[in-house]
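Readers outside the structure-tokenisation community will struggle with the description of the input data as it stands. For illustration, here is how one protein appears when written out as sequence plus structure tokens:
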Amino acid sequence: MSHHDDLTPEKAEAEFWKALEKSNTGMLGLDRPGNHAQPMTAYREEETGTIWFFTRDDTDLARDVAAAGESAAMFHYGSKDQKVWACIAGELTVHGHDREIIDRYWNPVLAAWYPEGKDDPHLMILRFDGEDGRIWVSDGGLVKFAFEIAKANLTKTLPDAGGVTDVRLN
């Protein structure tokens, strides 16, 4: 699967987590026909690899997850510098009003969505447990990408866009 033999699943997963820490917005959606992903901010718990999402209980996503109890979901991610891309499949569940999680990740951006603060009755925490996915890692950036495209066009070869590998998340 990998064009770069040196991109191991472990290295790709490490790059994904590192990128997610720097820019943590991606697209989250239920993995079922007719469902569309929506932009969500991801908060990763280092120890467990769990990704927490905060939402309002009156959104379509929150209602769908609450109705199902547990749902297959997909988290699509592209880092700000465009060096890491990922598509992670996992289980999405309603976690409830866990004050410890709220306190740990609370920030001014989150606060803006909950006028009543940390005790806002509409605040809902979703828990995403990633199972497996595919991660693309490019070591270059835009200048390297432009060079690879130009070189490929001149030499009639394929550009080196980095490596891709499948991962099983713990």
About this structure: Strands lie at 25-30, 38-41, 43-44, 51-56, 70-78, 84-94, 123-137, 163-168.
